[in-house]
Amino acid sequence: MTSPSLRLETDFLPMLGPVNRRRFLEGSTRATYPAGVVAIRPGGLPAAFLLESGLARAYWNLPDGRQATIAFVHPNELTGGAAIVGNSPWAFMQVITESTLTALDMKLVRDLVKSEIEVAAAVSKHLALRMRQAHRLIAIRSLGNIRERLAYDLLDRAGRHQLDQGKLQVRATQGDLADSIGSSREVMSRALRDFRGAGLVETTPGLILIQKPAHLAEIVRAFVI
User: Fold this and answer.
1) Contacts of 221 (CB under 8 A, 6+ apart)
2) Which residues lie across from 79 on neighbouring strands?
3) Are 55 and 217 in contact (CB under 8 A)?
4) pLDDT at residue 7 above 80?
5) Which residue has the higher pLDDT, 3 or 153?
6) Are residues 91 and 179 in the same domain?
7) pLDDT at 3 exceeding the cut of 70
């Protein structure tokens, strides 16, 4: 699991003092989204959220349906920092598990960024951390250990399947997974067996049910570059 220090590094509100923390949340609204919903779509009004609980996935896709996961969003993290500074990315945010999000008042938050150095610094740090997380997801595919690579691959595949079929599961053989993460079938099978023993997944021939996506996301998050 991820160390407390790594989790705190990405928690947004502790970057602000009590006064600016209160001002940052003024005018915000809270909503709970069921698993599988796309909460943010490109091309809409600029939006930024704090994830209060749950797990989300940010991704890009192409017209032909191909997708690339660019971030997993954890509780207490900010998403939409680029929109706050006026450059909304062409990205979607999918709710992996039922999640509660706090939608920020964009005008108020943008005014705070312009007037309060502490808030501007916090948003800048958030964006730098998002870049680091994107680098982590790129690097984990080749530099992560077997558990980390498999956890990422399962979450990425299951997220795409959830959008299409509404279920957080993976349809793939063990050979498919071994090829995808660049490992032997035997080594991958041991890692998958460990995940099954820990209750993270359930398996039947050709099908893997994701039971604890947040735990898999923590394995990915623990990868350090």
Assistant:
1) 2, 6, 72, 74
2) 49
3) yes
4) no
5) 153
6) no
7) no
Query: Are residues 116 and 164 located together in one domain of the fold?
Result: no
Instruction: Copy the structure tokens of residue 66.
Output: 């191909």
Rounded Cα distance between 198 and 206, Å, is 20
Range of the domain at 16: 4-140
Angle at 33 between CA 29 and CA 38, to 5 degrees: 105
Nearest alpha-carbon partner for 206 in 169, 166, 153, 162: 169
> How far is Cα 65 from Cα 182, in angstroms, rounded to an integer?
24
Q: What is the DSSP letter of 150?
A: H
State which of 140, 163, 180 marks the end of a domain: 140
DSSP state of 76: T
Tokens representing residue 103 in the block: 């939608």
Place of tokens 């680029």: 82
Q: Name the pTM for this structure.
A: 0.87
- For the cut 60, the answer to whether the pLDDT of residue 4 exceeds it is no
pLDDT digits (tens, 9 = 90+) for 132-183: 888 888 899 889 999 999 999 999 999 999 998 999 999 999 999 999 999 9
- Structure-token match 């958030």, residue found: 126
Does one domain contain both 54 and 155?
no
Digit-coded pLDDT (tens) for 74-125: 999 999 898 998 876 678 999 999 999 999 999 999 999 999 999 999 999 9
Q: Which positions ≥6 away from 180 have C-beta within 8 Å?
A: 153, 172
Burial (CB < 10 A; 0-12, 13-18, 19+), residue 184, is exposed
d(CA 87, CA 100): 24
